[in-house]
Amino acid sequence: MSVVQQRGLVAHADPASSVQTRCQALGLARSSFYYQPCGESAYNLELMRLLDEEFTNHDFKGVLGLRDHLRLADHLVNEKRVRRLVRHEPVYPKPRLSVPGQGTTPYPYLLWDRPATAPNEVWSTDITYIPMAKGFLYLVAVLDWHARYVLSWELSNTLDVGLCLQALADALRHAPAPHIFNSD
């Protein structure tokens, strides 16, 4: 049972018994019963505003990046303080899905100067993610370049090959296969 629940039981118990007796029966320290939480200080509220502003502008930064930003702005804060301040609105850096791995060779982009002149000539797919309270949702869309139309899309909480294949299969059910299929 949480301290908040224990406080409620002590407060609403039989008034004939003393607060001391009620607290002892529940194993709650009287100081916990009388404790009134104080709000955040003005300085902490200012830090929270700065953190929110920085994360809005640079959502790839995690707790350590936000700590470094505050330090550059002459605020002496440590990692634990930043974690506590962003606890109410968790900060997750964006996953680095587009960064190539070690030893990969970049290939030339062959469709750079080639416009799509007819529907179903060039399709492309894109994967994006949507930040949620506890992680991310992944959205896969198949697009027709000429019509600039979303042919199909799939949404999932895991990023796996099945998600992409399902989006492609749905697009192929509704339209003829393209001449070129461009993917990341």
TrEMBL record:
Domain named Integrase catalytic: residues: 115-184
UniProt record, GO biological process: DNA integration
SUPFAM superfamilies, per this entry? Ribonuclease H-like (SSF53098)
A molecular function annotated in GO for this UniProt entry is: nucleic acid binding
**Do you know which InterPro entries this protein is assigned to?**
Integrase_cat-core (IPR001584), RNaseH-like_sf (IPR012337), RNaseH_sf (IPR036397), Transposase_IS3/IS150/IS904 (IPR050900)
At the top level, the lineage of the source is: Bacteria
Name by which UniProt lists this protein:
Integrase catalytic domain-containing protein
Q: Which organism is it from?
A: Hymenobacter glacialis
**What are the leading ranks of the lineage?**
Bacteria, Pseudomonadati, Bacteroidota, Cytophagia, Cytophagales
